[in-house]
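Hi everyone,

Forwarding the result from last night's run.
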Amino acid sequence: MKRIFVTGIGTDVGKTVAAAIITEALQADYWKPVQTGNFHGTDSMQLKELISNEHTVIHKEAYCLEQPMSPHAAAELEGVEIRLEDIYMPVTRRHMVIEGAGGLMVPINRQHFMIDIIKKFDPEVILVIQNYLGSINHSLLSIDALRSRGLNLVGLVINGPPHELSEEIIVKYSRVPCIGRILPEKEITKEVIKNYATKFRFPEMVKE
């Protein structure tokens, strides 16, 4: 079964919504290795409310921290040591959708970053891009960070109002397909997620 890591070009770019759509489309399991800001609820809880299929298992976080800060800062404030070697992939017979925290270079401790979790498990990577001023730069830097480490970027998800010029240069530079677009919605519901799940188009390597 495939491991699919959903990461983003930054914080609050729509990773959890994208992860919910992909999870629903593939009836995959879901896992968020490191969660911060759980005082207001976790991404796992949000995803549980958004999916409709009965097959998905939502696995427990390796680290779940209360403060809405970068993992390394939240961990130090709460007296927790995040150890890369103590983060283990849950066992499943289904596809696994893994969601990162923040962007690729968010530190999880004083030596490692979110991208090191990706490298440890060597999954297929889907990068979530939100259209905003500066998103081209953030997107291309994220793509370069993945490529320089030999990681397998297989698709892009574009979130927000369409911006053809921005999207064109990002897709052309990355040389990977846009597997789906998330448009502005009044509310994100199970029905909305289920509808998008029928529209996303995955690379063959993900669907096998």
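The longest strand covers residues 96-103.

Cheers,
N.
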